[in-house]
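DUF3267 domain-containing protein: structure, please.
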Amino acid sequence: MSLKLIDELNISVDRKLLILLNIWSVVLFLMLTVSGLFISSGGSISITFSGLFIFFIILVITSCLHECIHGIFFKIFAPRTKVQYGFKSGLLYAANPGMRYTKQQFTMITIMPFVVITFLICLSLIFPIHRMPIYMLFVIHTSGCVGDFYYCYKLWRNNNRSILIEDTAEGIKIYEELKANDTIEK
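Here you go.
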């Protein structure tokens, strides 16, 4: 079996893509925030410096947890490989360069931080706490997942193809698996 590179997405290098994803992220953030304001009970919100500081710390921890979840799923599907963690172009990342995953595996790797953290945020609502900061954590995390959602879109757009995905520190490479009688176009 041979592979043909059919797409390469380098979010940290491709400025146009980064700007587009940031625009989508802001739009999603605004839509969810406005929705939350309409749904909220209309109670007053007080913002303090210590409250903002604690919220920022929780946001940083959530971002680190997000990348750790990616790393856990990289290891689930390739236990003998070494996951790399880093910070590039203002983004935290987890990567497993050189390892290729199936579409289903990479979808799990990509989407599970959103699923797990959203579940934990929903679970936290059973405690008697102020809900608006928790909702805003959900909004910020969800809008921060736009890159992951975009990867899933790109993977499943190739629905009729047998593809493998390689994660890199810059983004992903998508390969098509060629059968023995297929030829590689140059």
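Notes: The chain has a mean pLDDT of 87.
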